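[recover] target loaded
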């Protein structure tokens, strides 16, 4: 339930009859309601129109008054503009909320997709950090926060390398990089997920909702829509709803960036223009409607507001914090060894979800111990390895590995993941390069064979997988003209096939983010 002054006032105002009815309803089931979480986030990005500062302040304050901690993702230049305009009042109001990051200049070209489109993985991680480090540092300094609660890309200017750079630029609440935005590039079941080492609220699909602010007739359907989502999630045992706005929507007639940077336009700073503003009565009406909408959500049974900085505590990765049991690893190995020919995917065992990268890491660690003549110590923790950063080699001529060849390759893999913190793009068996997914099948077969025996299977041979698909890649979007080019700021038809190829490789790391048990 959400604590809110407004709810208390409303509760006092309801008639006795309603109260008795509500009590009877509550008494009908003693079961606790499954929790429906609501994350409300604002891309706070317009550094051109001062009225946007006032709208930001008013939103912060109206939510604080209701006991709601929202998430404001600030653009670096917006934070600097607030500082330069002396808006300590806005900064103070923002500090009551979770502060995320929304790029340094948002729509000034080149945007992240534009400058990362032709980069490989490592170059891209470095370039994102180079472009974004200062803006993130400015937001942290000006807002007085040591870590940023999340990052989310400007428009559709997404790139997988950005995700791997988040820790470097200080986006890691509770030491966990978080990504909060909306887009179609990658997603899992329209609920939070882990991908490329970051906890994501993204591609929320049917669990994303919002009310049109400037249409009186939009209030009733928006209330119905959010209630229906909450009812469905409750029936499913709980879940997260994502709602987003931009403070500028209350005051702009047209998006601030479309006025200046549309379809690749890139005027120098001296020629930036503020967007046309709405008349005050339209802004007032929008605030009133938004207040009604938020109060309505406060009253939804079982609803709870969450912010980006809460996410790591609400969705802990138990494979990292608690680790895998011996039973889990036995089951993972069994499933990989049996299903390896049809493909590899994230697997859920009880409260723990294991990405394909987690499976690879755990089996490498365990087999490493067996090779050294020791029993693996359980629980065995994952460390959040990244996926491979280059495409796998074509199927090797090898189909079987002798124990000794396997042992040497496995040792090399173990050294690689300890040093590089990612899945190798190729595993070497002497001069032969083997796809890591095919090698994972052999790892699982070796672990299943050796787990309980005394001594090593020196005279045995172990089959590799053959063109083993990583099925999790189906959750990564196909590259289409609209995926990046659909954003009004990008040039029409902007393509970034290399980014989506890198994104597919990171599907090794994709798994659901399960709520804390
Ligand atoms: Zn934005």
């Amino acid at each position: 339930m959400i604590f809110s002054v407004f709810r208390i006032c409303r509760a006092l105002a309801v008639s006795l009859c309603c109260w008795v009815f509500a009590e009877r309803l509550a008494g009908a089931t003693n079961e606790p309601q499954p929790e429906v979480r609501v994350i409300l986030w604002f891309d706070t990005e317009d550094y051109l129109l001062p009225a946007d500062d006032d709208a930001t302040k008013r939103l912060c304050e109206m939510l604080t008054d209701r006991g709601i901690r929202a998430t404001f993702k600030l653009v670096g230049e917006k934070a600097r503009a607030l500082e330069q305009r002396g808006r300590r009042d806005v900064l103070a109001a923002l500090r009551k909320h979770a502060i995320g990051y929304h790029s340094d200049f948002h729509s000034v070209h080149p945007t992240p997709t534009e400058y990362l489109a032709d980069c490989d993985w490592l170059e891209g991680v470095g370039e994102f950090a180079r472009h974004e480090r200062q803006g993130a540092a400015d937001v942290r300094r000006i807002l007085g926060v040591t870590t940023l609660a999340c990052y989310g890309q400007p428009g559709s200017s997404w790139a997988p390398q950005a995700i791997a750079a988040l820790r470097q630029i200080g986006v890691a609440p509770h030491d966990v990089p978080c990504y909060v935005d909306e887009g179609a590039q990658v997603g899992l079941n329209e609920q939070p997920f882990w991908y490329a080492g970051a906890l994501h609220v993204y591609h929320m699909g049917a669990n994303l909702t919002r009310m049109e602010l400037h249409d009186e007739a939009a209030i009733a359907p928006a209330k119905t829509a959010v209630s229906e989502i909450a009812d469905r999630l409750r029936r499913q045992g709980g879940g997260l709803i994502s709602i987003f706005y931009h403070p500028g929507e209350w005051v702009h007639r047209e998006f601030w960036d479309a006025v200046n940077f549309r379809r690749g336009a890139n005027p120098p700073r001296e020629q930036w223009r503020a967007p046309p503003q709405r008349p005050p009565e339209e802004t007032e009406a929008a605030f009133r409607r938004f207040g009604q909408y938020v109060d309505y959500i406060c009253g939804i049974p079982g609803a709870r507001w969450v912010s980006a900085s809460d996410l790591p505590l609400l969705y802990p990765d138990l494979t990292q914090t608690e680790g895998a049991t011996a039973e889990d690893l036995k089951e993972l190995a069994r499933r990989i060894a049996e299903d390896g020919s049809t493909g590899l995917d994230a697997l859920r065992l009880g409260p723990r979800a294991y990405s394909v990268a987690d499976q690879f890491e755990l089996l490498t660690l365990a087999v490493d111990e067996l090779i050294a003549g020791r029993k693996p110590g359980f629980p065995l923790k994952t460390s959040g390895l990244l996926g491979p950063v280059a495409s796998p080699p074509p199927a090797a001529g090898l189909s079987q590995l002798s124990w000794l060849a396997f042992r040497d390759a496995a040792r090399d893999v173990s050294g690689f993941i300890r040093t590089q913190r990612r899945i190798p793009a190729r595993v070497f068996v002497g001069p032969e390069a083997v796809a890591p997914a095919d090698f994972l099948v052999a790892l699982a077969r070796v672990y299943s064979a050796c787990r309980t025996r005394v001594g090593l299977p020196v005279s045995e041979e172990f089959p590799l997988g053959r063109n083993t698909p990583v099925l999790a890649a189906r959750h990564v979007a196909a590259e289409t003209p609209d995926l990046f080019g659909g954003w009004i700021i990008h040039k029409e038809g902007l393509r970034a096939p290399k980014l989506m190829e890198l994104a597919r490789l990171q599907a090794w790391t994709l798994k659901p983010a399960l709520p804390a048990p």
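[recover] notes: The two ends are 18 Å apart (CA to CA).
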